[in-house]
Design goal:
The chain is mainly α. The protein contains 48 helices and 8 strands. It has a 6-stranded parallel sheet with strand order 1-6-2-5-4-3, with helices on both faces. Helix 5 packs parallel to helix 6, helix 9 runs antiparallel to helix 10 and helix 11 packs across helix 15. Keywords: DNA-binding, Transcription, Transcription regulation. It comes from Streptomyces rugosispiralis. This is AAA family ATPase.
C-alpha cells in the first residue's frame, strides 16, 4: 500500500513555530480532494502544533477547517468527537443541513441506542458532509484519534472509506507505538490509498543545540548537554525548560514539571499510575515490580515505559530531572501517595534493600501496616538516627509511645510526638491535642509541654480548649512566671483573650521553659502591637532571630520566627526583616524536611515583598507558603499567606485568581485572630478592584473595629486599614470621610513608618486643591523611593503626572507619566499599567516601551548610576544633586550611554536600569 512517510530532520528556529519547518500538504496549491494525512509520533513531540498549522493553512487555501480533540476521559461519551466537528460546520456560513437524530445528540437530549442506529446516523452525517463539501471543501482535523469514542470512530471509519469521492481532507494525529481501542479506524487509515503519513520524534542532540543557541544565545551553548539530558529532545519539555532557564536560571516545577505532568494527564490513567509509582520509589523499576505497585498488568506497563522513553520524557524508567519527579509527587493525591509508599516499603523489604530506605517509605506512608513484624521495625529504628528528619523522628516516637507502659512518660512522649509532627503538618498533630489536654487536667503533663500545647491550640483555632487550658494555667501557681509570656502570645494571636500583665523583673531560673525563645518573641510582637516600634523592640527581635539561627530551643520555632519577623515588618523595618529572611534564616530554614518552617518563612517573605511592591514575588512566596503547608495545616494563621496572595493577585490584575482565593473556605476562628486582619484587608482591596465599594469599606472598617475592641489601636497597625477605608470612600465620591481618615492616620502617635505616611499623603492630595497636590505627592514619592515600595511609588507618580497635567505643565506630566508606567511594569502591576496604557493608543505604547536588546552590560558603573536615575525620569540637575557631581558630568555620561545603547532619547532607556536605581535609594 502506498504510504508516504516523512521524518522530521530539521530543528525549529523557535518552538512556537515548529510546524513551519515540517512541511505539509497545504503549501502553494490547494489540497487535493480526498486526501488523508496521519501525523504519527510519541507524546508531546509537536503533533498538535502541526495539526493546528495544517488547519490554518487549509483555511488560507479556502477550506472550511474544523477541529476536534479526543480525550481518554470522554471516550465513553457517544459521538463526542462528532459533536465537536458538527458544531464547527454548523457555525460556518451556510451551515450543515439538518441531519435526522444529530441535533438531539448535540444538545445532549438523546444517545444512540445500538450499533445499527450509530451506523445509520454516521451514514447520514457522512452524506451531509460530502454534499456540503461540494460547495466549500472541508478539512476535518482530529487530534489524538486513538482516544476517540467508539461511535465517533465508526463515523470517521465510514468517512475515510469515502474520502476519495469527496472534497474532504482529513488530518489525524496518533501514536502508532501504543495500542488503540478503535483498531478498525487505524487499520483503515493505514490501508487508505490516499494516506500521507508524517512521522515525528524527539529532536537529536545536534538539533537541541541549535534550538538552545537560537533561544538563549551563543553563550548558552554549554548548556546543551544538560538540556538534552533533561528533555531527551522532547519539544514540549525543551520549550518549557528553555523558558525556565531564561527566566529563572534553572528548571522549575511550575514550568518544566508542569509540562511533564500535562503529557501524563492527556493520556490513559495507566501513564499517570506508572509514573507516580516511579516518582515514589525514586528509581527505575522493572515492569513486574511496577505491576505489583500499580495493580496493572506487566505487558501494558512495558508499553507505557517504551512510550515514555520514545517520547524523551523519561530515560528507561528514570526521571530526566528531579523537577519532573517532584512535580509528579506534588500533583499526587495524599492517599494515593501513602498507599504507594506502603507498597514500596513492602517491595523493597522483600528485596532486601537498606533499612533506611524502607523506613522513609514507612514514614511517608503515614502509618505502619499491622502486618510488619516487630523485629523488622526494631531493625529499622536501630539504623535510622533520631532527628535526621522530622518524619523519621515521628516514626521512632510513635514506636516508643506505643511500647511505653508508664502514664506520665507516655504523656511526655506524646507531647514530643505532637511537637515533631507539628513541624511536618500541624493538622496531623491535632490528633494528640485531646489526650494531651486531658493529661494537663490530670496533672500528668509538665508545664513546658503544657505551654507548647497552648501555642499549638492557638494556631489551630481550638478556642474551647484554649480557654479551658488558659484557665487551668492561670490557676496554676507554678505557671505564675509564665503568664506574661502566655499573655504576650495571646496578644499576638487572640488579643481578645489576653489579660494585660506587667512583665516580671527577670526571665530566668525556673521561668525559662524548653520553649524559651518564643515567649520573648511573643513579648516583642505584643509590645509593637500595643506601643509601637522602638530601638529596644528591634534589638530584642533580632536577638530572637539570632538564637533561632543558631538552632536554640527547637519547640515552637516556627511561631517564634514569625512573631519576631512580624515585629520588624509591622514597625516598618522591612530592610531588617528581609535581610534575616534572605540571609541567616533562609540558609537554616530546614529544607523540605521541615515544611512548616519553610511555609512560615515563605509567608513572611511574601508579606515583605508585598510591602516593597514586588507583586510577582509576593504571589510566588504566598503560593509557596500554601504549598509547603496545606491550608488546613495553617489553621487561623492562613490569613497571612492567603491575604498576601489575594492582595498580590489583585494588584497584578489577576482578579479571577484573586476571586478564587477569596472564595476559599477559611476557619471562623481566623476572624477572631490577628491573622484575620491580613485577610480582611486583602479582601477589601479585592472588593475595591471589583467596584464593590460598600463591601470593601465594610472589611476595612471591621479591621479598625477589631483593633479597637482588642485594645491595639495605639500601637503599630498590622494593616493600614484607614488608608484602605479612605480609598473606599474616595471611590464612592465621599472626599470628606476620606479626608477624616487620612488626618487620623497622620495624627497617630505611631504612624507605622514612612510607608503609611506616604500612602496618607497620596490620598490627602486626592482631596486637596490642584495647586497643593504636587507638593504632597512629591513628598510621598520621596518616601516611597526611600522605602523601595514600587507599587505605591507607581501609583503616586501617576497621580503626580495628572496633577502636573491639571496645572498645564505638560512636559513634566509626560516625564512623570513615563516614569510611573515603567515602575508599574517593573513590579508587575498590570492593574495599573494596563489601565494607563490604552490598547487603542499605539503611539503612547511606542513611547513607553523600552528597546528589547538593551546592552546595559557595556556601561561602566558610573554610567549605569546616571542612566538608572535618568530612566526613572530625573532631570540632569536632580541627578547631579543625588550623585554629588556637576550637571555637565551627568550630560557627558548620558551622551556616552546613548551612544553605547544606540538610542536617542531618555524614553528609550531600558527599564532594567530600575534595579540599579533601587540599589541607590
Amino acid at each position: 500500500m502506498p504510504v508516504n512517510t516523512e521524518r522530521n530532520s530539521r530543528p525549529t528556529d523557535r518552538l512556537r513555530n515548529a510546524a513551519a519547518h515540517l512541511g505539509h500538504p497545504f503549501g502553494d496549491s490547494p489540497v487535493r480532494p480526498g486526501q488523508a494525512l496521519l501525523v504519527d509520533g510519541p507524546l508531546a513531540c509537536g503533533k498538535t502544533t502541526l495539526l493546528r498549522s495544517f488547519a490554518e493553512r487549509a483555511s488560507e487555501a479556502g477550506y472550511l477547517a474544523v477541529t476536534a480533540t479526543c480525550s481518554p476521559s470522554e471516550r465513553d461519551l457517544p459521538f463526542g468527537v462528532v459533536c465537536q466537528l458538527a458544531r464547527g460546520v454548523w457555525k460556518s456560513p451556510g451551515g450543515l443541513p439538518e441531519v435526522p437524530g444529530l441535533s438531539a445528540i448535540l444538545h445532549g437530549t438523546s444517545d444512540p441506542a445500538d450499533e445499527a442506529e450509530i451506523a445509520r446516523l454516521s451514514h447520514r452525517l457522512c452524506t451531509s458532509l460530502i454534499d456540503h463539501a461540494e460547495h466549500t471543501p472541508l478539512l476535518l482535523a482530529v487530534d489524538d484519534v486513538r482516544h476517540g469514542d467508539p461511535a465517533s470512530a465508526h463515523f470517521l471509519l465510514q468517512l475515510v472509506r469515502r474520502l476519495d469521492a469527496a472534497r474532504i481532507a482529513a488530518v489525524f494525529t496518533d501514536d502508532l507505538s501504543l495500542p488503540a481501542p478503535s483498531l478498525p479506524l487505524r487499520y483503515e487509515l493505514l490501508r487508505s490509498q490516499s494516506l500521507r503519513r508524517i512521522g515525528l520524534g524527539p529532536l537529536t542532540r545536534e538539533q537541541v543545540s541549535e534550538v538552545v543557541v537560537a533561544e538563549l544565545g551563543e553563550t548558552a551553548s554549554h548548556r546543551t548537554g544538560d538540556v538534552y539530558a533533561a528533555t531527551g529532545g522532547n519539544r514540549l519539555l525543551l520549550h518549557t525548560l528553555l523558558a525556565d532557564y531564561g527566566e529563572h536560571g534553572e528548571p522549575r516545577q511550575a514550568g518544566y514539571g508542569q509540562s511533564f505532568l500535562s503529557c501524563l494527564h492527556r493520556n490513559e490513567p495507566i501513564f499517570l499510575d506508572v509514573v507516580r509509582a516511579l516518582a515514589v520509589v525514586g528509581t527505575s523499576l522493572p515492569a513486574a515490580d511496577l505491576a505489583w505497585l500499580t495493580g496493572h498488568e506487566p505487558e501494558p506497563i512495558g508499553q507505557v515505559l517504551a512510550a515514555l522513553t520514545g517520547a524523551g520524557l523519561m530515560d528507561k524508567g528514570a526521571f530526566r530531572h528531579e523537577a519532573a519527579r517532584l512535580g509528579v509527587l506534588n500533583d499526587m493525591p495524599a492517599q494515593a501517595r501513602r498507599t504507594l509508599h506502603q507498597r514500596a516499603a513492602r517491595l523493597l523489604h522483600d528485596q532486601g534493600r537498606p533499612a533506611t530506605t524502607i523506613a522513609r517509605h514507612l514514614v511517608r506512608a503515614g502509618r505502619i501496616p499491622d502486618s510488619w513484624p516487630a523485629e523488622v521495625l526494631l531493625e529499622v529504628a536501630e539504623q535510622v538516627a533520631v532527628g535526621e528528619e522530622p518524619s523519621i523522628a515521628v516514626d521512632l516516637l510513635e514506636q516508643s509511645f506505643e511500647q511505653c507502659p508508664h502514664e506520665e512518660r507516655r504523656a511526655a512522649l506524646q507531647a514530643k510526638l505532637a511537637e515533631a509532627e507539628w513541624k511536618i503538618n500541624p493538622s496531623t498533630a491535632t490528633r494528640h491535642h485531646t489526650p494531651l489536654y486531658g493529661a494537663v487536667r490530670a496533672g500528668r503533663l509538665g508545664l513546658p509541654d503544657s505551654v507548647t500545647l497552648l501555642m499549638q491550640l492557638l494556631w489551630k483555632g481550638g478556642l474551647t480548649d484554649v480557654e479551658g487550658l488558659l484557665a487551668h494555667l492561670r490557676d496554676d501557681p507554678a505557671a505564675t512566671d509564665q503568664l506574661h509570656a502566655i499573655e504576650a502570645a495571646l496578644t499576638c494571636t487572640y488579643p481578645w483573650l489576653a489579660e494585660r500583665r506587667t512583665a516580671p523583673a527577670h526571665h530566668g531560673g525556673s521561668a525559662v521553659t524548653r520553649a524559651a525563645v518564643w515567649p520573648r518573641a511573643g513579648t516583642v510582637l505584643a509590645d509593637v502591637l500595643t506601643g509601637g516600634q522602638t530601638h529596644d523592640t528591634v534589638r530584642r527581635a533580632e536577638e530572637v532571630l539570632r538564637e533561632l539561627q543558631l538552632g536554640h530551643d527547637p519547640a515552637c520555632q516556627e511561631q517564634a520566627g514569625l512573631f519576631a519577623l512580624l515585629a520588624l515588618v509591622y514597625g516598618g523595618r522591612i530592610d531588617l526583616a528581609s535581610a534575616w529572611c534572605e540571609g541567616a534564616l533562609g540558609e537554616t530554614g530546614g529544607g523540605p524536611h521541615v515544611p512548616m518552617r519553610q511555609a512560615v518563612l515563605a509567608a513572611a517573605r511574601s508579606e515583605i515583598a508585598l510591602r516593597r511592591g514586588d507583586l510577582a514575588e509576593a504571589a510566588e512566596r504566598a503560593r509557596a507558603a500554601l504549598t509547603h503547608a496545606s491550608p488546613g495545616a495553617w489553621g487561623v494563621a492562613i490569613g497571612l499567606p492567603l491575604g498576601s496572595l489575594i492582595l498580590a493577585c489583585t494588584r497584578m490584575g489577576r482578579h479571577e485568581e484573586a476571586g478564587f482565593h477569596v472564595a476559599q473556605t477559611v476557619p471562623n476562628a481566623m476572624f477572631k485572630s490577628s491573622y484575620g486582619l491580613h485577610y480582611l484587608y486583602a479582601r477589601g482591596h479585592y472588593f475595591l478592584a471589583a467596584n464593590r465599594h460598600q463591601a470593601a469599606l465594610a472589611d476595612f472598617l471591621l479591621c479598625g473595629e477589631l483593633l479597637t475592641d482588642w485594645g491595639l489601636s495605639s500601637g503599630c497597625d498590622p494593616v493600614p486599614w484607614r488608608i484602605g477605608a479612605a480609598e473606599a470612600w474616595l471611590a464612592q465620591g465621599n472626599h470628606d470621610q476620606a479626608r477624616i481618615l487620612v488626618y487620623q492616620q497622620l495624627s497617630r502617635p505611631h504612624t507605622d513608618g514612612a510607608r503609611a505616611r506616604g500612602q496618607s499623603l497620596r490620598l490627602l492630595a486626592a482631596t486637596s486643591s490642584a495647586k497643593r497636590r504636587p507638593q504632597l505627592l512629591n513628598e510621598a514619592v520621596g518616601l516611597f523611593t526611600e522605602q523601595e515600595d514600587k507599587y505605591e511609588l507607581a501609583r503616586t507618580l501617576w497621580d503626580l503626572s495628572q496633577a502636573y497635567h491639571a496645572l498645564g505643565e505638560k512636559k513634566q506630566a509626560r516625564r512623570t507619566m513615563r516614569r510611573a508606567w515603567h515602575v508599574a511594569k517593573m513590579c508587575d502591576a498590570a492593574s495599573l499599567y494596563e489601565e494607563w496604557l490604552p490598547a487603542d493608543d499605539p503611539s503612547q505604547a511606542t513611547a513607553l516601551m523600552p528597546k528589547s536588546d538593551t546592552g546595559i552590560e557595556r556601561l561602566t558603573h558610573s554610567e549605569r548610576r546616571v542612566a538608572s536615575l535618568a530612566a526613572m525620569g530625573y532631570t540632569n540637575r536632580e541627578i547631579a544633586g543625588k550623585l554629588y557631581v556637576t550637571a555637565s558630568t551627568v550630560e557627558q555620561h548620558l551622551t556616552r550611554v546613548f551612544r553605547k545603547l544606540d538610542i536617542r532619547h531618555r524614553e528609550q532607556l531600558p527599564t532594567e536600569l530600575y534595579a540599579d536605581r533601587m540599589e541607590l535609594a
